[in-house]
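Quarterly update, task 2.4: beta-D-glucopyranose-bound model.
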Amino acid sequence: MTRIPWWRDAVVYEIYVRSFADADGNGEGDLQGIRSRLGHLRDLGVDALWLTPFYRSPLADGGYDVADYRDVDPRFGTLDDFDALVADVHAHGLRLIVDIVPNHSSDRHPWFQEALAAPPGSPERARYIFRPGRPGERPGEEQPPNDWPSAFGGPAWTRVDDGAGGGEWYLHLYAREQPDFNWRNPEVRHEFEDVLRFWLDRGVDGFRIDVAAGLFKDESFGDLAGRDRRVANGPIYSRPEVHEVYRKWRRILDEYGGDRMAIGEVWTDGPEDLALYLRPDELHQVFQFDLQLASWSATAFRDVIDAALKAVAPTGAAPTWVLSSHDSIRHLTRYERPGGIPGIERARAKAALLLLLSLPGSAYLYQGEELGLPEVTDLPDEARQDPIFERTCGELAGRDGCRVPLPWSGRAEPFGFSPAGVRPWLPMPRDWASMTVEAQASDPSSMLAYYRGALAMRRRLAGDLPEELEWLDSPDTALFFRRGPLTCALNCGENPVRLPPGTPLLTSAPLYGDLLPGNTAAWLRTP
Ligand code: BGC
């Protein structure tokens, strides 16, 4: 039998390092904290971990602003801690993926500091994207070089102060503390090739590439003029030049043994564009955010599943599925229906897991979903740290609500996240005592027990499941499909529907005889 590379059907668990477990008692999660909780992840039954950035950083964007790509931020630990973590992860039979942030650095990165100190046109400035401004309406006034917006609100350009009232502008597609690299400069390419090797040499199994479609910008820097900033092959994202970079990265990954992989964060408006990244000599996977973006509807789910499968089919790559991440509102909360049946969001989240885990390809879970954590929507303004909150002047709440530290044990904050008496970096809701890992671990009716059961069953079935999915007839409010011996049935409606043929293996809520209740999913053994 041909061996399938591990990542093709892996369940990967995203660890938002700052919020996972705090061993050193500074109120922020760290690498030792992760080491101390690997038992939870093994018992949960995932195959791999993806760590968000833990590199040296002022944390202007939670670590996606890197000041040193080859070191661990002291808040998160040391390189020795990292090496110990790699060894422990592997000893637990898990794989480790780390985030790499090639589109931009921190403004505290030595290269950007050198660029600021150097004059226009210098080699130091040529590592980033500096441009002269455009004349403003009044004499002496200047406008940014073009109309590009920052993804976090406001313009994508900030002017530097040259001390004489002048100064060029630099590009930052995200916060002003995240200047974009100039990928047309070979120095930048070489630097990142070296950074990849640095972490591969330390034993990582793969990379999650942040803003993977953004590295090259159209050299004319023309206005967007009303176009979507994400349009494929527009001036900002998915320029054709980016693919040469990933071809080179693939060659580097292939030089190392052990199935090292890369998954790109590619937001794009077209499946054809997505497929380009998956050519056999480029990335192994790209994130497909379709499920995360779909509303609670069988038709919507069927459509996005079809589209996602179609997008990867010509490439031979395995699809990827995700319901939540550190960038989005937790799906449990997305599935709420104001004024609807109490607890409907929990029922839906349980049902959605069976859908996620029975689709072909790999599933990416986000820390805390196994505990049924909701989005924290009532964080005080002064606690919020996401630059989106500040850059939109509070118009958008930002992503802190899905980044609240995990509750591990105990009856009050810090719920075992930090040592007793320490205040976590974001406040934790008072009513999380019943949500802790400790409280749920011994309760067979808990979300955690349910996740463990579903993951264990997926693992048992995995070897027998073909990569193809076959749709079965179903009522409009439901979707049924089969993958060889496994049939998955999901009823997104409110009224029960008749189950497809098969013996029930696992259900997200009790069945009514041969009826599948609303907001419920079932796995059945195909007859
Ligand atoms: C990451 C975000 C980050 C942004 C800028 C995204 O894709 O997932 O958390 O803010 O890139 O680095």
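Highlight for this quarter: The radius of gyration is 24 Å.
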